[in-house]
Design brief:
It is built from 4 helices and 12 strands. By secondary structure, it is α+β, with helices and mostly antiparallel strands. Strands 1, 2, 3, 4, 6, 9, 11 and 12 form an 8-stranded mixed β-sheet that branches. The longest helix has 18 residues. 44% of the residues are buried.
Length: 255
């Protein structure tokens, strides 16, 4: 099941998100914008000469061959193009609608490139154990800067999995759910410009990129500023607490 909607139908987006835990918004960015962001992303990684590999240890058994991954935290602190996208109403209005709130606060961002032929997968997991919050009004948006068919290791989700609440994860090699079959997750192929929104309780992962082209995405984790974290963790992200839409009614900022 792949659930897609126009970003202009916010009530429908909110309904599908509440029922299924995710929604794929088609064409939130134009093809031209996505292509420009793809070029910017690859140029940024090349300029910074990042050679660290964030592949999870728990992902190493998902492929017969050694896989690799490129990433960058806080791309908005290196290029203003990403800062503009963070406060673009096309994104923030959807984020607010699916959470059912008026205000949207940044948690963190990550730029990912899965290299061709052996781009690393991600085991099934919830984002919850990495940064738990009291009311679970925390979500993610994955911006696709190039096409992400199944052979590129597109995101997979388990529809409705958020309704069961937080799950017990195996923390070894990064939090993952070894008892949930990877085949249970439904592929969500996307085109350049599409954005996949999902809750931090939705079980998700992704496969290996076995294609001849890289897969380029930007992950934005956001929250309701009125939803406090229950533990102090993942506070190394430089932009955490930035208000992307509305206000912070608590005055708490990133604390």
């Amino acid at each position: 099941m792949t659930i897609t909607q126009s970003r202009t139908d916010l009530p429908a987006l909110a309904t599908q998100y509440a029922e299924q835990g995710f929604v794929l918004v088609k064409g939130l960015l134009s093809k031209e914008e996505a292509a420009a962001y793809r070029e910017t992303s690859h140029a940024l990684l090349a300029r910074l000469n990042r050679d660290d590999d964030p592949t999870w240890q728990s992902a190493m058994g998902m492929s017969d061959a050694k896989t690799r991954l490129q990433h960058l935290h806080d791309a908005q602190f290196y290029d203003a193009a990403f800062s503009k996208l963070l406060v673009d109403p096309r994104f923030t209005d959807v984020a607010a609608a699916v959470m059912g709130v008026e205000d949207v606060q940044l948690h963190h961002t990550k730029l990912f490139v899965k290299p061709p032929e052996n781009g690393s997968p991600f085991p099934l997991h919830q984002d919850y154990p990495f940064f738990p919050h009291k009311y679970h009004r925390v979500g993610a948006a994955i911006f696709h800067f190039d096409d992400a068919p199944e052979e590129k290791g597109c995101v997979r989700v388990i529809p409705g999995s958020h309704l069961a609440g937080p799950r017990e994860h195996d923390p070894e090699g990064s939090f993952h759910l070894p008892d949930v079959p990877f085949e249970d997750a439904v592929p969500q192929p996307a085109e350049a410009g599409d954005v996949l929104f999902f809750t931090y309780l939705t079980v998700h992962g992704s496969g290996v990129n076995v294609s001849s082209e890289p897969r380029t995405t930007w992950l934005v984790q956001y929250r309701d500023p009125s939803d406090p974290p229950t533990v102090k963790t993942h506070d190394h992200s430089l932009g955490q607490g930035m208000i992307l839409r509305g206000i912070d009614p608590t005055g708490r900022g990133s604390v």
